[in-house]
# Entry
Amino acid sequence: MPGKLGLPEILLILAVALLLFGPSKLGALGKGLGEGIKNFKSAIKEGEEGDEKKP
# Structure
């Protein structure tokens, strides 16, 4: 099935990322990505709440 990532594909991607960035940069990259996703979700939630308040 094209477009679906299984466990072997994810492990391969993580291994390549580890080789490219190294363990310390990879941790910082993951932390930054997680914070970005969290901020994005909170911004969407605030936008939806603002739309509900408007008549």
Remarks:
- The chain has one helix and no strands.
- Residues 23-55 form one domain.
- The first helix runs from residue 7 to 53.
